[in-house]
Amino acid sequence: MSKDTKKVIDLLNEARSRELTAILQYMVQHYDLTNQDYGKLAKVLKATAIVEMKHAEALAERIVLLGGTPTSKPDAEIKKNQMIPEMIATDIGLEEAAIKMYNDAALACADARDLVSQDLFEKILGDEDGHLDEFTNIKEHVEKLGNVYLATLTGAGE
Fold it and tell me: CA-CA distance, 128 to 103, in Å (whole number)?
């Protein structure tokens, strides 16, 4: 295995570890919110977690193709029992960090002349940018409307 391939595998595993953290964090939030009858917001977090699961799988497949072993360890502790504003702040932080990492990783893959891995990072980057936008919008609604907005998030969600 070349030095460049090893570097790309390390980047892919770092990304996979980040995705595993996001999956676990969003699913914990989904369960907490469902239990508190915030089903509409819980549904958003579950859907986001499923997208992150697909990212983790795509990263693992690329790692295996390059001759590496996909990590199964998240890169951070999962935060539990947060209030909605704290949850959204956590989620924004996860997405901002992922966006920075994926931008850097895409450039590193280009330098290593691995355009397939670069393309994978760029595709995931687009999804993460969408997640950040969604979480930022929720944060702004909570800040502007407070409990009035939170009341709209109750119920099963459709």
Answer: 11
